[in-house]
């Protein structure tokens, strides 16, 4: 297993980029950027190796530094962070892992950012029928110590076809089902950060296992996988 960490030079570069977010500066410092990108990729590879000890990972992705400014009021051409994701293998393993590295704004995120229409309806129907298992998983003290409370966008009132007076409407209203863990710069730059990342990702597994079971079965508990 490789050993790597995030160096302070990576954050120093990102801070300089935030002050000089234009093509001329970036092109002059592209060699430095490439070196830091390689360092981050090595760190992500380490995370992936650890993940593969307890989960099946299909692929790792390091996101590009270049921003898509076509539909944005902010026309700065470069992101001021590094980010990566890890996709789980197969239709039977749901959920995803994300890592965001930015001076003053680093975090991990996991869960379901944009469930498609069918998946969102299936989750809501499960919660409508019985949300006890869901609440048990997300309220476990060992889980909340690391991941805190469920986050994500929600509709203002009950979704169409659901009772606004339902006892679990607070969950049913959600459009996203995600968890976020924030880190200070000191924590990110410490030698044991990769251990904290892996510990966090391990802790989310009961939630992933439950959601995978929900999203691969119908309301009768029968598999929907072909």
Structure description:
The chain has 226 residues and is of the alpha+beta class. The chain has a single domain (8-215), classed as BirA Bifunctional Protein, domain 2 (2-Layer Sandwich). The chain has helices spanning 8-19, 23-28, 30-51, 117-129, 132-138, 141-147, 169-172, 185-189, 193-203, 205-215; strands spanning 57-62, 82-88, 96-101, 106-112, 177-183. A 5-stranded antiparallel beta sheet has the order 1-2-3-4-5. Helix 3 packs across helix 9 and helix 5 packs antiparallel against helix 10 (205-215). The model has no long low-confidence stretch (mean pLDDT 95). This is TIGR02453 family protein.
What brief labels describe this structure?
globular, 226 residues, alpha+beta, BirA Bifunctional Protein, domain 2, 10 helices, 43% helix
Shape: globular
- Uncertain stretches: none
Average pLDDT, all residues: 95
Q: Tell me about the biggest sheet?
A: 5 strands, antiparallel
According to DSSP, the number of beta strands is: 5
> How much helicity do the residues have?
40-55%
- Give me the CATH fold name: BirA Bifunctional Protein, domain 2
Strand order of the largest sheet: 1-2-3-4-5
How large is the radius of gyration?
20 Å
The portion of residues forming beta strands comes to 5-15%
Structural class: alpha+beta
Annotate the secondary structure layout.
Blueprint: H1 8-19, H2 23-28, H3 30-51, E1 57-62, E2 82-88, E3 96-101, E4 106-112, H4 117-129, H5 132-138, H6 141-147, H7 169-172, E5 177-183, H8 185-189, H9 193-203, H10 205-215
Antiparallel strand pairs: 1-2, 2-3, 3-4, 4-5
Helix pairs in contact: 3-9, 5-10
């Amino acid at each position: 297993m490789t050993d790597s960490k995030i160096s302070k030079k990576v954050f120093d570069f990102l801070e300089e980029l935030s002050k000089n977010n234009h093509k001329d500066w970036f092109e002059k410092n592209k060699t430095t950027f490439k070196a830091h990108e390689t360092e981050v990729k090595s760190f992500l590879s380490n995370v992936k190796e650890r993940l593969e000890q307890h989960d099946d990972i299909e692929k790792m992705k390091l996101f590009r530094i270049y921003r898509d400014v076509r539909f944005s009021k902010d026309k700065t051409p470069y992101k001021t962070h590094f980010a990566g994701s890890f996709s789980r293998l197969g239709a039977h393993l749901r959920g995803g892992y994300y890592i965001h590295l930015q001076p003053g704004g680093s975090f991990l995120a996991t869960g379901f950012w944009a469930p498609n229409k069918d998946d969102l309806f299936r989750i809501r129907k499960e919660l409508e029928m019985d949300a006890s298992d869901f609440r048990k998983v997300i309220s476990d003290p060992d889980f909340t110590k690391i991941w805190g409370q469920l986050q994500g966008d929600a509709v203002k009132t009950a979704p169409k076809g659901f009772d606004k007076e339902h006892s679990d409407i607070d969950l049913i209203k959600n459009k996203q089902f995600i968890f976020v863990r924030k880190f200070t710069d000191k924590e990110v730059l410490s030698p044991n950060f990769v251990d904290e990342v892996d510990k966090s990702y391990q802790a989310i597994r009961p939630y992933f296992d439950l959601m995978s079971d929900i999203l691969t079965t119908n309301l009768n508990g029968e598999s929907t996988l072909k």
